[in-house]
Amino acid sequence: MVRISLLVSILAASWAGCLCAEVAKPNEPLFRIDEGKIYGVVNGEPIVGRDVMEVLVEEVWEKYLQAFVDFAIRREEVEKAKIDVPIAEVDDELKRVLEARATPLGINIKTPEDIERVYGIGMLETMRRAVRVDLGLMKIFHNSKKLPTDKRILAKEFDQLKRALVETRIRLAGVKIDPRELGNGEAVRIGPRPYGRDEVRQYILDAEGQIPKADLQQIVNQLEVEKLVKAFAKTKAAVLNEDDRKFHFSYLCRLKEQETGVPGRAVMMQLIQKQGMTPEQYLLSRVLRSTLWRP
C-alpha cells in the first residue's frame, strides 16, 4: 500500500519530496494509531498499534529514506548557519503556501488549524518541519545575495537553489544507505554524520501515523493473515522458500492476465512500482505473503 496525497502533491513543488504520505479526502475520517492499543486478536495473540506502525514504516521506508536525506541536508545547513525560525513565522508562511497552492484546486484548507483538524497533528508537524527548514534556507540565500529578498519559498528561484544545494552536498559528502556500510541502529549516513533508524521511523510516522479506517482495517487483516501463517508454519514445519514465492508470483501474473487481457507480468510490475518496491522486495514482502496464504 503506497499512499500519495493530493495535498502532498500540491506542496511537492515547494518542498522537494519532504512528504510521501497519503492524506485522506477531507470527508474521510482519520484514525491516529495508538502504539499500545489492541486492534485485533489472533489465537489469543494481540495485534497492537506498534505492529500496525511497523507495517506502515516497512511499506514506505525506501520512499521516505530519500525524502529524509533531502530534509536532513537542508536542516544541517540551517543548523550550521545558526538560524532559528519562530513557530509564528512558520505558521504565517504555511498559510501563504496553502493559500497559493491549495485554494485554486478547491481544497478548503487555509490555515495550520485546518490541517490539524482534517488531517491530524502529525501531518501538521510534518508540514511545519518542512517550512521551518525552507525558511531557514531562504534566509541563508537572502543573506548571501543568491536570492532576491522579495522571493520566498514558493519561488522557482528558491526551489532551484535548494535542489542545487542538496545535489552538491550528496555529491561531495556522499550518502550511505546500505546496511553493510552502516553501524548498528543506523539508517543512513550523510558524510560523517549518522542518522538512526528510530529518527527515520519517527519522521515517517509523523506523516503516516494517522490513516483512514479502511487502510487501518486492511493492515490489521494483513497482520492477522501473517500471524495465522506463522502459526501454521510452526505446527507443520512449513517454510516458504524462493521457489514458492516465484511460483506464486507467476500464478498472480496469470490471474492478472485473465482479468485484464494484458500480459500479466507487465500488470504486476506496474503494481509493484506503484507500491514503491523492486521485484525482489515484493517477493519478500508482507503483501505477497498475504496473497499467498489468504483462503
Question: In a few lines, what is going on in this structure?
Answer:
The protein has helices spanning 6-15, 49-80, 87-101, 112-119, 121-143, 156-173, 197-208, 213-236, 242-260, 264-274, 279-283, 286-293; strands at 30-32, 38-42, 45-48, 175-176, 186-190, 193-196, 210-212.
Would you tell me the structural class of the helices and strands?
A: mainly alpha
Task: Output the strand order for the largest sheet.
Answer: 4-5-6
Estimated helix fraction: 55-70%
Strand content: 5-15%
Report the average pLDDT across residues: 78
The span between the termini is 20 Å
Which stretches are low in confidence, meaning pLDDT under 50 for 5 or more residues running? 1-26
Categorize the overall geometry.
globular
Number of strands: 7
What does the main sheet amount to?
3 strands, antiparallel
Describe the model.
This protein is 63% helix and 9% strand. It has 295 residues and is mostly helical. The protein folds into two domains: 6-210, no CATH class; 240-295, no CATH class. It has a three-stranded antiparallel beta sheet with strand order 4-5-6. Strands 1-7 form a two-stranded antiparallel sheet. A two-stranded antiparallel sheet has the order 2-3. A hairpin with a 2-residue loop joins strand 2 and strand 3. It is globular and about 65 Å long. The two termini are 20 Å apart.
